[in-house]
DNA sequence: ACAATTGGTGACCTATCGTTCACTTCTTAT
DNA sequence: ATAAGAAGTGAACGATAGGTCACCAATTGT
């Protein structure tokens, strides 16, 4: 029964680890919530730590496939509105996709204990987004949309506030809604601040 | 022996909790590193959770005394250099004070488990700094140093990148040094971006 | 001077942790 | 049809978790 038990275990592990941390989660609860008895899990993983490592492998692979490669770069926006819209689309996705939300949380919780978690957290929360927008802003400078400046610095100034807002999101939809509004307000402010002078 | 055992316990608890989290720390290790046997701790705290709550009380009180009140506001800078210098002084303090570093870590780790930790984390990482710089930027606008805009938005745009950099600091001094340089570079960039037009 | 309190010890308790193992049940290849 | 392997069970394991208790030594108030 249940061919994909391994995947179900990892999914549930992500859910529990993200809520209570690795040390705060026990395999009894993990297996019970999957409708099996705790010893059954050792047919799929040789230890609790092996589950954690497999989960991290999966998270790293997932990140690489979805955000880490150059072909996942969105097109360079051709207006302020397009920049705002693209940003909102990205944030909306990252805030409402349960898996990404849980990944963010578990990386936050385990970053000081696990070196790989720390590296991935750094990409997730900071360098990844910033690198992406470095390319985007360089493109917008080429097009004469925003004023010439260090695109890396602009990307940093743009993505860290948005990242901070994303971090504040929880399950309550109205709170998430308010945060989305702040993202949009900030995005517009940024555009107004850095747009090229109208000639 | 050792009149201030209670304080020593809290200090060591902060250290261990910040490294391994609340669930990942056991009282045997905590007491052993204080040179006593584990049962001894129950003469000072009635449970592990009581230690955590006392620690949180202490952190909340400390924050209120040092950052939370209006009289702790630094004077409004009267130049771009003064803004950069004041920022560097603040960041330097917050990055090198061991207690603050550990507090930041433990709040990061326990924010999803404890409502009060979450609130304090929010102040520590976001709203506190932003509110402070809202006042500062409003003052700088009054003085005609930076261009008129929403001071809250500027404070948000200024403090969240700095906060993100602070979060990356660890014990390695050269890394911390590099981060301090990035803080300074960002601070200057911000000043150049928002300074009032020279007439 | 002495009873009471405080701070600390070591043995012990129960619960729970991650893990193992003999055994069963189900699926699948031959 | 049947042997082999995969998936799951339930009891048990040793280790360790947080916590209690009787006891002791030092300090303290009167």
Summarize the structure.
Two copies of one chain form a homodimer. With about 200 residues, chain A is mainly alpha-helical.
Describe what you observe in this structure:
The structure is a homodimer. Chain A has about 200 residues and is mainly α. In chain A, about 70% of the residues lie in helices and about 0% in strands. The first copy, chain A, folds into two domains: about 1-55, Homeodomain-like (Arc Repressor Mutant, subunit A), CATH 1.10.10; about 65-195, Tetracycline Repressor, domain 2. The radius of gyration of chain A is 20 Å and the shape is elongated. Chain A starts with a helix and ends in a 5-residue tail after the last helix. Chain A is built from eight helices and no strands. In chain A, α1 (about 5-20) packs across α5, α4 runs antiparallel to α8 and α5 (about 100-110) crosses α6 (about 115-140). The interface of A and B includes residues 21, 105, 186 and 189 of A. Chain A binds a DNA duplex (30 and 30 nucleotides) through loops.
Mean pLDDT of chain A: 95
Over all CA atoms, what is the radius of gyration of chain A?
20 Å
How many helices of chain A? The count is 8
For this structure, the quaternary state is: homodimer
Could you please say which CATH topology of the largest domain in chain A applies here? Tetracycline Repressor, domain 2
Which spans of chain A have pLDDT < 50 for at least 5 consecutive residues? none
Taking the sheet with the most strands of chain A, its summary is: none
Give the amount of beta strand of chain A, in percent: under 5%
Q: Tally of extended strands of chain A?
A: 0
Which secondary-structure class do the elements of chain A indicate?
mainly alpha
Name the helix and strand elements of chain A from N-terminus to C-terminus, one letter apiece. HHHHHHHH
Second CATH tier, the architecture of the largest domain in chain A: Orthogonal Bundle
Text of the CATH class of the largest domain in chain A: Mainly Alpha
List the chains of the largest interface with their residue counts: A-B, 31 and 31 residues
Shape of chain A: elongated
């Amino acid at each position: 029964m249940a061919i994909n038990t391994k995947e179900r275990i990892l999914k549930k592990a992500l859910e529990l680890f993200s809520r209570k941390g690795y040390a705060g989660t026990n395999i009894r609860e993990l297996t019970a919530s999957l409708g099996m008895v705790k010893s059954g899990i050792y047919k799929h993983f040789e230890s609790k730590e092996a589950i954690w490592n497999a989960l991290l492998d999966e998270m790293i692979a997932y990140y690489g496939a979805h955000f880490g490669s150059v072909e996942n770069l969105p097109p360079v926006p051709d207006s302020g509105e397009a920049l705002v819209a693209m940003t909102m689309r990205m944030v909306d996705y990252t805030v409402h996709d349960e898996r990404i939300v849980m990944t963010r949380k578990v990386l936050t919780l385990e970053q000081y204990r696990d070196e790989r978690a720390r590296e991935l957290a750094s990409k997730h929360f900071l360098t990844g987004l910033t690198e992406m927008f470095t390319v985007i802003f360089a493109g917008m400078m080429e097009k004469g949309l925003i004023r010439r400046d260090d695109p890396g610095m602009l990307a940093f100034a743009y993505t860290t506030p948005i990242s901070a807002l994303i971090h504040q999101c929880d399950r309550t939809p109205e709170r998430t809604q308010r945060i989305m509004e702040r993202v949009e307000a900030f995005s517009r402010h940024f555009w107004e601040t850095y747009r090229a002078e109208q000639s």
